[in-house]
Amino acid sequence: MPRLTRLTPDTAVGASRDLLAELVSRRGQVGDMVSTMAHSPAVLGGYLQLSRAMGRAKLDRRISERISIAIQVRQGCGLCLDAHVSAARALGVDEEEIERARAGTSADPAIAAIITLALQIYREPTSITDEQIAALREHGYSDRATADVVGVVALNILTGAFNLLAGLTPESGTDA
């Protein structure tokens, strides 16, 4: 059961009212996470800006979805996990690779290496080594794509933590 109430452009105040009104006018509706985030204009605005920025990431979306799956398995946000599994499927990631992503790896050594990096960023960024970054370059990842991993992880921490705080679950929520 949700712990925080959902807001609408009519019930939100200040900057949140403006952000929600703009989103509703563009999309027709907003999901539970966004409408609940509207309690904090800072969180909602930050989420929207980071989400838009990550839409321009250089990292292949099929890889970022696998990273998101690996992070959400560990963070425990079922709503986010379901959303990222669905997105991975829609992008053509097969079920075996989705299961590997849940385990924090991939059959492809290059993808396994970048998932490993993402999990280190999530758990223990001090453990990242120069050799590991050099190996990512050898796998063909640009510095930009490698840097984008931090954004993917940060976005997952934000959405997962918010959904867990707000009590949004696959049964109660409609977006991650």
UniProtKB/TrEMBL annotation:
Matching SUPFAM superfamilies: AhpD-like (SSF69118)
Domain annotation Carboxymuconolactone decarboxylase-like: ranges: 45-115
PANTHER family: CARBOXYMUCONOLACTONE DECARBOXYLASE-LIKE DOMAIN-CONTAINING PROTEIN (PTHR35446:SF2), SI:CH211-175M2.5 (PTHR35446)
This protein's name: Carboxymuconolactone decarboxylase family protein
The organism of origin for this protein: Streptomyces amakusaensis
